[in-house]
Design goal:
binds zinc ion, single chain, binds 3-methyl-2-oxobutanoic acid
Length: 515
């Protein structure tokens, strides 16, 4: 059967990073970009270089270090943005400039204050200017789904004539429906005379929960690139979720007659990594990567599954790289067994990283009888989320009870000194956080706090996530331990370290970007 190849354009690091409360530092962005390259994403949108020095630096590093996918950076349709994008992308083996301008009358009148003629000229000039730098230029018509169709077709035709090799049709505000969006793509194909010279891409937001359905309808009508994010991250209700798009194509090739080049066995790992580094948990019933996506609760279902998994399962968990929470190792397991398990789980790590992880595994195996695959995965993602440590928690101690005021003491190390402080609080967590505040001298606003078990069992690893706000910026930190108070203290200190690591990005040096 002839299958069309659909290019996967991942914008987790650009549109996904615009998720409220998400703030990734350079190391985290690189970690995600490497993971996306391993899963064979076709294009990585690494950021919006003009937006801030931090974005510029991250795009440059990704362009220099991440090989395989095309690396792109976003630029509004103006010279300064395009210059910044090119400078940041210069070291990429394959660089793309992604330039955009809005095309709906609403945006023209209230945001751009431009006429249609001016927008046509600006689109053409932006593409032409980008082509001076690179051959691969993508043009996006922001708010395309609410634009006048014929004007949209004119803008697209001008962009292609000026040298755009990909034209992107965003549903910026998540307004369209599958049938309508499919028709729009079909209309563009019929009414843009030079459309055969470009790839048609779509970029759907999820405000009405239809981002994936809309993207797939576009694929059925001739789009061959879809823009998406891991776990559907993104501004407001997010973007089309990559794992859902890819697995829909993978599971229903008979229907879509299309395929993506993604190595689906990386999907679960990358979803976990992004969730840990962004601090945005995946809802349990989320398609493909939610904790319950492959869980069968009903007896009838379980019976059928035992006879033949196909009775109730349309995808195999292994296809997304999900292991069966198997009991694997314990405190007597040696380094070879540990290394073998890492390989079986699909982790290809350096000897140095394996050594560090093995030490952590041994510490865990001392506190926890049975070490599951999910525990090992949690240790790996904990390693990935480790920050440059301004502060390191050496120990903490808590006294609390229903009749006593909770008191916590902490010992924290910095590069210059070791500080010990104690504080009382409204419960053990509050006391611990207050003691850390006193020891570090920081006053942060605790925006949110969550704790969950990584696996089942009384000695399960607890995973704590803490969101802190300072000067209008929110960051998250994560801590792991079989003791939930220790996990919480580690998460709090990790959030403070992250606040310091990303401190160079201030509101004053960011500009409003795309949606
Ligand atoms: O949603 C949108 O329109 C965008 C464009 C900049 C592609 O993110
Ligand atoms: Zn967007």
């Amino acid at each position: 059967m002839e299958q069309r190849v659909i290019r996967i354009f991942d914008t987790t690091l650009r549109d996904g990073e615009q998720t409220p409360g998400v703030c990734l530092d350079m190391g985290e962005k690189l970690e995600i970009a490497h993971a996306l390259a391993k899963m064979k994403v076709d294009i990585i949108e690494a950021g919006f270089p003009f937006a801030s020095p931090g974005d510029f630096a991250a795009v440059s590093e990704i362009a220099a270090q991440v090989k395989g996918p095309v690396i792109t950076g976003l630029a509004r349709a103006n010279i300064a943005d395009i210059d910044a994008a090119y400078k940041a992308l210069k070291q990429a083996d394959r660089a793309r400039i992604h330039t955009f301008i809005a095309t709906s009358d609403l945006h023209l009148e209230y945001k751009l204050k431009m006429t249609r003629e001016q927008v046509l000229d600006a689109a053409e000039q932006a593409v032409r200017y980008s082509r001076k730098y690179v051959d691969d230029v993508e043009f996006s018509a922001e708010d395309a789904s609410r634009s006048d169709k014929d004007f949209l077709c004119q803008v697209i035709a001008r962009a292609i004539a000026a040298g755009a090799s990909t034209v992107n049709i965003p549903d910026t505000v998540g307004y369209t429906t599958p049938a309508e969006f499919g028709q729009l793509i079909s209309y563009i194909r019929k009414n843009v005379p030079n459309i055969e010279q470009a790839i048609i891409s779509v970029h759907c937001h999820n405000d009405l929960g239809m981002a994936v359905a809309n993207s797939l309808a576009a694929v059925q009508n001739g789009a061959t690139q879809v823009e998406c994010t891991i776990n559907g991250l993104g501004e407001r209700a997010g973007n089309a979720a990559m794992e859902e798009l890819v697995m829909a194509l993978h599971t229903r090739p008979d229907y879509y007659k299309a395929t993506a080049g993604i190595d689906t066995r990386h999907i679960y790992k990358v979803s976990r990594l992004v969730s840990v580094l962004t601090g945005i948990n995946v809802q349990p019933n989320k398609a493909i990567v939610g904790d319950n996506a492959f869980a069968h609760e009903s007896g009838i279902h379980q019976h059928g599954m035992l006879n033949n998994p196909l009775t109730y399962e349309i995808m195999r968990p292994e296809n997304i790289g999900l292991s069966h929470n198997a009991l694997v190792l314990g405190k007597h397991s040696g380094k070879h067994a540990f290394e073998d398990r890492l390989k079986e789980l699909g982790y290809d790590l350096s000897g140095e990283k394996i050594g560090e992880l093995f030490t952590k595994f041994k510490e865990l195996a001392d506190r926890k009888k049975m070490v599951f695959d999910k525990d090992i995965e949690a240790l790996i993602t904990e390693k990935a989320s480790e920050k440059a440590e301004w502060y390191r928690l050496i120990y903490h101690q808590v006294m609390s009870g229903s009749q006593t005021t909770a008191t916590a003491s902490v010992k924290i190390e910095t590069s210059q000194e070791v500080v010990e402080q104690a504080a009382c609080g409204d419960g053990p967590i509050d006391a611990t956080f207050k003691a850390i505040d006193t020891a570090t001298g920081f006053e942060m606003i605790l925006k949110d706090y969550q704790i969950k078990a990584v696996t089942s069992g009384e000695d399960a690893l607890g995973e704590a996530t803490v969101w802190l706000e300072k000067d209008g910026r929110t960051v998250s930190g994560r801590g792991l331990s079989t003791d939930i108070l220790e996990a919480s203290a580690k998460a709090y200190v990790s959030a403070i370290n992250k606040m310091l690591a990303t401190g160079s990005r201030s509101d004053s040096d960011t500009v409003a970007g795309g949606n």
